[in-house]
What we know:
Elements: E1 9-16, H1 20-30, E2 38-45, H2 52-58, E3 62-65, H3 70-80, E4 85-88, E5 93-95, H4 99-107, E6 116-123, H5 128-144, E7 153-156, H6 157-162, H7 173-185, E8 190-199, H8 202-207, H9 211-224, H10 229-236
Parallel strand pairs: 1-2, 1-4, 2-3, 6-8
Antiparallel strand pairs: 4-7, 5-8
Helix pairs in contact: 1-2, 9-10
Amino acid sequence: MNEAEIKPTLGVVIPALNAADRLAATLQALDAGRAMFDIDIVLVDGGSEDDTVRIAKAGGARVVSSDPGRGLQLATGAEAVKGEGLLFLHADTVLSPDWARALRGAIEQPGADARAFYFRFALDDDNPGARRVERWVARRCERRNLPYGDQGLALPRDLYDNLGGFAPMRLMEDVNFITRIKHRCGYENLMQLDAVALTSAARYQRDGYWVRPVRNALCLTMYFSGISLRMIARVYG
């Protein structure tokens, strides 16, 4: 294999707990990236009682176990997965077919070793409320450059390690880590890719397209105000 044919290595970490409903689609979407990346997928199971583990193995992922808690599961997966680059992805998030091309183009740009990348947010529901939430998220990312974990996050392993990795938090682990990226690397080095992370709308459908975003915004305000995660969890539901 000559130098031009060598593909960058990418470790994909997926925390999961009873995620069987959407996991197969999430894994299938990752296959589109194998032409551009040498991919290793690790699913970190937090004690699922459904078919999550079976589906993960059938979809080409290695499975490791962890106590439940997304921050802990993400940190566990980062230690287990192989790859000079890391991609953290929720189990109910399906990347668009152009995700690998967008990411490959980004990491080949000068300065990419000090940058982190995320995808555009979308929900898998035709409800007008879903489009409203998408606009709110786009505005938050535009004004505050603050993506959440359901938009995926890709960055070099060295940068991940230098930032201290994900904290073993039961929630808000994404905001915690994104904040560290912006503070240490600079606001401009957290960049949105021109590809989509299509996420399950189940939580919005259950809680309501007005109530769920309001809860999320309140949790964010509580977090930056220093309120305990236990209290935030009660609001988050």
